[in-house]
Specification:
Length: 174
């Protein structure tokens, strides 16, 4: 959510102002700092009421259920579609509309807002009797929006709006 709106846009601006390498250096430094913070802030040791090996043994019966495998495949396809869009969208904006790397920051941030909107909407949809259809419907709608976006190459504002709707649709189950 927030990282997609602010982080990707910030890295695009840093990459355009300095070089693409500096955006990776900055991301690595921030990741290392957060990792260090988590390492220092989390309590150590093992909980006394958990026997070794029980965590994995709790999931083994679930792996025998076909529904779990179907859900896992649907989840994989959905996340693959989302990450493929998010990875390609900036390059598409540069190639199709002639934007610079830093000019892609705002359209990518707008598309990232879809993840935040979907978080609120997904919670509502999870409480309905149609919740089982949220993931396949969101993936299908996202796929159709992606076909229009990348196949037709609409006006820039329409492309950004389609990106927002695509991220909203594919993120609604999550």
């Amino acid at each position: 959510g927030f990282a997609g709106v602010v982080g990707v846009a910030l890295m695009a601006v840093v990459g355009d102002l300095y070089s693409w390498r500096w955006s990776f250096y900055l991301a690595a430094a921030l990741t290392a700092a957060l990792w260090g913070l988590v390492l220092v802030m989390l309590p150590g040791g093992r909980p006394s009421n958990v026997a070794p090996g029980t965590l994995i043994s709790r999931f083994i019966p679930l792996l025998k259920l076909r529904f779990i495998w179907d859900l896992s495949v649907a989840n994989f396809c959905n996340r693959l579609a989302f990450f493929a869009f998010y990875t390609y969208f900036g390059a598409f904006l540069i190639q199709q509309y002639g934007l610079t790397t830093s000019q892609t920051a705002l359209p990518i941030a707008v598309a990232g807002i879809g993840v935040i909107v979907a978080s609120a909407g997904g919670g509502f949809l999870a409480d309905t009797r149609y919740r089982i259809w949220v993931m396949p419907a969101g993936t299908a709608i996202g796929g159709l929006l992606g076909l229009v976006l990348f196949g037709v190459g609409p006006h820039l504002f329409v492309a950004v709006a389609l990106g927002l709707l695509l991220t909203t649709a594919t993120s609604a189950p999550f």
